[in-house]
Amino acid sequence: MRDIFVTVVVFGALLLVFKHPHYGIYLWSWLGYMNPHKLAWGFALNIPFALMTAVVTLTVYLLSKEPKRLPWTPETILLVVFLGWVTFTTFFAFYPQLAWEQWDKVLKIQIMTLLTAMLITNRKRLEGLVWVIALSIAFYGVKGGIFTILKGGVYHVQGPATTFIAGNNELGLAMIMTIPLLRYLHLQAQNKLIRLGLAASMVLTGLAAIGTQSRGALLAAAAMGGLLWLKSRNKATTAIYIVMAVGLIAVIMPQEYWDRMHTIKTYQEDASAMGRINAWHTAFNVAKDHITGGGFEAFQAPTFGLYAPDPDNVHDVHSIYFEVLGEHGFIGLGIFLLIGLLAWRTGSKVIRECRREPDRKWAADLAAMTQVSMVGYATGGAFLGLAYFDYYYHLVIILVLTYQIAIKNTWGTLGQDKPADSGASQATRLTSVFGRSA
Q1: Residue 275 and residue 394 in one domain
Q2: 315 and 368 inside one domain
Q3: Rounded distance, CA 364 to CA 50, Å?
Q4: Which DSSP state fits 381?
Q5: Is the pLDDT reported for residue 369 higher than 60?
Q6: Which of 47, 153, 267, 359 could, after both became Cys, cross-link 273 (CB 3.0–4.6 A)?
Q7: What is the mean pLDDT of the chain?
């Protein structure tokens, strides 16, 4: 029954894409973050829904009257440069077959990320994207939060198999990244029931993140929670939600959980932690010897045999920073970090210019909450190998689009589609918003 339901929904949504190409971005995001087909048990499990959606969306977009332009900003330029660099390093990868398979996945993610920047052209579309991303992950947050309460925090909360968020660590980080987006939607909602639902989702998602029993998620939650309070427009309300979540965690989580978290202070005695540190040394040594790094999937046993302080301790790198460093060298890491820093700067510009204007306060809220989400990723990602997670790149694009819509694109401020301008004024406006043709 689940298979039939998911298949009908996907193909029904694909029909809408032919009329509204940006719906393809929503559908692709829903499939990529919630992975509903992975919750089925039959034929739908292995149907390439995401690939089908990407092909249909791209084809319809090229045939549509949508502007065929990418907003050329420092962030989007660097995303293209980063894709070019990882393509170059793949030619020199230690394990070519594995590397090209991973490159194919990264290529698809980056194409759809850039397509997002081309199709999400006004506030209404942008908020639709935020709703899809937030609710897709919040599905596991609400479900996992209730599970944690019912089971007393004894069992780990896990994600759908064979996805970016399959493991408890990965799911925990994704949920931490989602709480600020839920808070943004909560700030914008006018309906009391919707606001109540979003508030409950935030608390349950925070509880579920802790219920994953991921130490990285705990550190990310601490960093995200503090900045969430500082960045929030209504600090009193935010503080109430944070206190509620912390109170539930203190009451529900068993002693075994606190014992596990305590090992953060005694990492020298933890085999998993020492394995990660060994992998980090390996990444540094590879990058030091190879300007292109080892290519995608470089962290294999032979690599450890040549570059690790402890050659027999083969361990996943578990860090976005050392993952990029080991696979694409210092140049790759520099580009990766610069993308995030420039996106942060763009978000700060939006906050500075829009926070005091009632009509554009939404943009300041979205920029602030997206920055909080990025801090969660930057903190938790230090202990997880999620460097190519599409969620992070969507956050970058959300900041870029918020700036384009709220500051450079005045008609998009009200969430309306482009008005019927004269040919000259229309061309001038599009050139101003989107830059030169891609």
Answers
A1: yes
A2: yes
A3: 32
A4: G
A5: yes
A6: 267
A7: 88
**Higher pLDDT, residue 432 or 53:** 53
Q: Which three-class secondary structure state does DSSP give residue 70? A: coil
Q: Which two tokens stand for residue 240?
A: 């109430």
**pLDDT-based confidence at 281, cuts 50/70/90?**
very high
- Which stretch of 106-120, 205-219, 256-270, 325-339 has the lowest confidence by average pLDDT? 256-270
Nearest to 228 by CA among 183, 173, 170: 183
Domain that residue 22 falls in: 1-66
* pLDDT of the residue at 265: 56
347-356 burial string, b = 16+ CB within 10 Å, else e?
bebbbebbee
Is residue 131 situated within a structural domain? no
CB 122 within 8 A of CB 412: yes
- If asked whether residues 84 and 224 sit together in one domain, one would say no
**Whole-structure pTM over 0.70, yes or no?**
yes
419-431 pLDDT, tens digit per residue, is: 434 344 444 433 4
Q: Say yes or no: 87 and 165 in one domain.
A: no
CA–CA separation, 124 and 150 (whole Å)? 38
> Of 49, 66, 83, which closes a domain?
66
Name, in order, each residue with C-beta under 8 angstroms of 233's C-beta and a sequence gap of 6 or more: 187, 361, 365, 368
Helix (H, G, I), strand (E, B) or coil at 436: coil
pLDDT band at 393 (very low <50, low <70, confident <90, very high): very high
- Residue 238, classed as helix, strand or coil, is helix
Q: In 51-61, which positions are buried (b, 16+ CB within 10 angstroms) versus exposed (e)?
A: ebbbebbeebb
Q: Encoding tokens for residue 210? A: 């802790």
Going from the C-alpha of 117 to that of each of 34, 110, 353, 403, the distances in angstroms are 21, 11, 21, 12
| Same domain? 226 vs 249 | yes
Domain annotation covers residue 126: no
pLDDT of residue 116 exceeding 80: yes
Assess whether 288 and 237 both reside in one domain: no
* Token pair recorded at residue 125: 């579309």
CA-based nearest residue to 174, from 32, 47, 338, 38 = 32
Flag whether 130 is in a domain: no
Q: Which of 265, 284, 307 finishes a domain? A: 265
Interval 141-193: pLDDT, tens: 999 999 999 988 888 888 888 888 988 889 999 999 999 999 999 999 999 99
Burial (0-12, 13-18, 19+ Cβ within 10 Å), 315: buried
Do the domain assignments include residue 191?
yes
Q: How many domains does the chain have?
A: 3
Neighbour-count burial of 285, counting CB atoms closer than 10 A to its CB (0-12 exposed, 13-18 middle, 19+ buried): middle
**Which residue reads 């069992």 in tokens?**
155
Instruction: Mark whether 186 and 227 lie in a shared domain.
Output: yes
